[in-house]
Amino acid sequence: MEGVVEEYIRLGLDLGRHIDGFVDAYYGPPAPASDAAAGPARPPAALVERARRLLAEIDADGALEASRRRWLAAQARGLHTTARRLAGEAIAYLDEIEACYGVRPTWVDEEDFAAAHARLDGVLPRTSADLAQRYNDWREAQVVPPDRLEPAIHSLAEEFRARTHQAFGLPDGERVDFVLEHDKPWGGFNYYLGDLHSRVAMNTDLPILSLVLAHVVAHESYPGHHTEHCRKEVGLVRRRRQMEESIFLVGTPQCLIAEGLADLGLEVIAGERPEPIVEAHLKPLGIPYDAPTAAEVAQAGEKLGAVVGNAAIGIHDRGWSPDQAVAYLETWGLRPEKRAAKSVDFLTNPTWRGYQFCYIDGFRLCRRFVGGQPARFERLLTEQLLPEQLVAAEPGS
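Given the sequence above, the corresponding structure tokens read:
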């Protein structure tokens, strides 16, 4: 490995000793991981200094091509910011997110949420006068029975894999194992193990809704995280020896691109309205799913995803208590208390406190960049791109 690449990997692994889950995946040479695990964790102040030196070394390394050097520098800025926070430096929340992920969060006006409420009011079954009650009654009626969850996951994944392979290609030997877990802050998670193998976990702390199941499957596997990892392992790591791609680190722009393309994945392989395809898999299994209403509600409520971003800003930038954030999610996100509290658990988790904007802004930027062009989506799967490049590019059309 080039010197700056090895130091980037070692620094990421050393930061991972302090932050649970910071190293999302690593399948590179074993020596750096063994060294990072040996002995006590390196002091945060020393990691700050190493990150500062790494940034200077990347900038001075004329042997690396400019695009690769730019990508590594953006990643290293994220590591530097995380190390500074670990060392006790006070960093404003919005500054932290911008330095780590390459976007600056913005507050979304509640008028947008009120407009979404009005649209939902027009499409939801009129079972009561209270919109939140109607919305949640309808959603909770779409629970996947536990004994049919795994057959549904495998049925959807099989079709999504075929569609992904046809559209973008998949390397020989890739595979995904789906498992069910609990007591996690997230809803689904891809553990990429290297050698084209993923373990995808679904969190069963709360009942899983048929309305989100297809999205989670596509997001975590085909054409989302698993597909991106496989294509980059083959194309960038094995063929081009860009070993920096063998590690995936939270708190970096790499995450924003990954979450954005994964959130866009189902739309890319199944169209803007995938509900009939989803219904064809779920209805034969006896799983409740109303495709026409699901489509109308999804369109009407799309803006409500940004409510969680406002809650994150409220907690970390405006001094809200967790209870205030839960109430905000109940009011504007129309979430029941248990699901709102689960979201706040994620927003206050030390590892994931800023991660919500990878979904909000990642999806926005990736959708704009792709613009319905499969070749643009394949670039996201196979190239080292940064948020600033998606902003600068002409929108797809």
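The mean pLDDT is 96. Try to locate this feature in the token string yourself.
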